[in-house]
Amino acid sequence: MRHGPRSFSVCLAVNHAVKVSWPATSLPTGSTRHARGTPSAVSAIREDAAPDADGGTDRDADRNADRAALKGDCGNCFGLCCVALPFARSADFARDKDAGKPCGNLQRDFSCGIHARLRDKGYQGCTVYDCFGAGQKVSQVTFGGRDWRAAPETSRTMFEVFPAMRHLHELLWYLTEALTLKDARPVHADLRRLLAETERLTEGDAASLAALDVGEHRQRVNVLLLRTSELVRAKGGRKAKNHRGADLMGRRLRRADLRCANLRGAYLIAADLSGADLRDADMIGADLRDADLSGADLTGAFFLTQPQLNAARGDAATRLPAGLARPGHWSV
Ligand code: SF4
């Protein structure tokens, strides 16, 4: 399978000069794209409990519920990923599309005209993508429910703000998850501060979001995520492998012992990870497109996102970390 310069994630980095420390793997996809759904809380992240004796809060135990709110709610979005983001004809997309131009399949009500047939029609990339809840935040909060068709004068800024918001929401996902990790307790107070700061940034007006240096904020978050990773993976001892940023494309890693491994930004495209032990591995930014996770154990693997899983292959025997769903296209 040919993997083109793909998707939304790469385009985001290029178009918005967002320099990141791990390759973004958030492919454009729309696992939930255009299944009109129940409006979810635009943001459920909050700080409403006092720290307890060990620096944690009652809220930390319930962070997975917060993460559940960090996913696309297409019924409350103005089809932003289908307009704002560009894509290139490749294995993931049947056609080229420029940023700011509505996809030809986007309907008047912002639903997708080929939602049930995306893979058959060559839009596999759209089945992988998730905006982490950025679409509904921009649509309903930043722009107060006025869509770009009804108020075309807002469209340019709206399409500029969406990628920035998506980056911020992706950071909210990681920070929220980090607070569920008991081994990261020494940095929980710092994580809570950055989580609150990131949440505040998402609540800014359109002008401040458009002017935001997301890359700078992301770097600050990344320092803390790195420390979190070290604390969690320390239980793997000296045996834990370090494959940070490694080129493992197509590699045969069947039944490999990757417990507590550092797979940050690793290129695992089409790798055979069937039966691999990936428990407590750091998966941030690992490119899992077409990787075979059949029978792999990802229990406790962290900083893994739904778009990464959606891009991979797997089966009913794949064990997943909390908070992630088994993709519908995986074999049973
Ligand atoms: S095919 Fe077009 S309208 Fe449908 S999900 Fe993909 S980008 Fe959106």
UniProtKB/TrEMBL annotation:
Sequence segments annotated as region (Disordered): 25-62
Superkingdom, taxonomy of origin: Bacteria
Gene3D superfamilies in the cross-refs: E3 ubiquitin-protein ligase SopA
InterPro entries from the UniProt entry: 5peptide_repeat (IPR001646), Pentapeptide-BTB/POZ_domain (IPR051082)
Pfam families referenced in this protein's UniProt entry, alphabetically: Pentapeptide
Protein name as catalogued: Pentapeptide repeat-containing protein
Species annotation: Streptomyces luteoverticillatus
